[in-house]
Amino acid sequence: MDEIIINSEKCRVIKGFERYHISESGRIYRTETGKKRSWRTKGRVFINETKIHFRIQNDKLRQGFASLTDTEGKLHNVAAAPLVAIAFGVLLEKLNKKKQAIDYRDGNKRNLHYSNLFVAKNTHTNNKLDSRDVKHIKKQIKLGVPLRRIAWVFGVSEMQINRIKTGENWGNGKRKIKAPVAPFEIKDGRIRKYIATFDKKKTVIRIKKPFIIKRNPDKSTDNLIVGIVNGYKLSLKHTNITSAKRIIEKLNNYFFDLKT
To answer: Fewest CB atoms less than 10 Å from the CB: which of 4, 5, 122, 218?
Structure first.
């Protein structure tokens, strides 16, 4: 279940580490093993609580990290505060903005309650990654998880995650995950790079439809940008309706009002 109650607290599943739930106050519980439960844990809501470790570095308290296993049973050291922020909506649309990080209203890094967290200027302290972390990161990239979200969870910079994506780091200089490519020639570089991120499906070449937004009335963050250009139906999910409206205006001006 995505949301359960443990010790009178609302707990939500951790994206990317679905065997765990995290509570409103930042307590992490192992709720599944991936195997059949033993007689000791059968019928219990959770198996055990995962300890969050805080270290002192240069006489300053670092943010808390927890050791979590992925679906293959491999261990990863991830930052706890971003997990709370992502699970309980502290980040929202601010997730994709640059030079931002999680900070604490009362200045106490041990207070991980979601109400104590907010988005502030980036003060990343780069954490060291090992091969297991990188393998998990590459899976998250392939699933389309935003690079900034991955960076926050692993306590590294977004640039470092992007270098893993392109193969510059942990790839022997070779691109392991291919960069998206636009399905047809587009002269404007920014438009070309953006269209490359869309899902593409071939249609009849003669059909053209300006970009529109299809909204989910039951979920305000579930929006789909859709249009048909040069024989391709292009679609992309977008969580911010205001930003999505600006995007379709630019796309329609480029593809339908201007000669390309």
So the answer is: 218
Q: Rounded to an integer, what distance in angstroms lies between the CA atom of residue 23 and that of residue 112?
A: 9
Distance, in Å, from the CA atom of 196 to the CA atom of 179, rounded to the nearest integer, reads 9
Torsion angle of C-alpha atoms 46, 48, 49, 50, degrees rounded to 10 = -120
Q: Please report how the helices 131-142 and 147-154 are oriented relative to each other, as an axis angle in degrees rounded to 10.
A: 150
Domains of the chain and any CATH numbers: 3-166 (3.90.75.20), 189-257 (no CATH)
Give the end-to-end CA distance of the chain in Å, rounded to a whole number.
Answer: 49
Length of the chain: 260
Single pTM value for the model: 0.51
CA of residue 151 relative to chain centroid, distance: 9
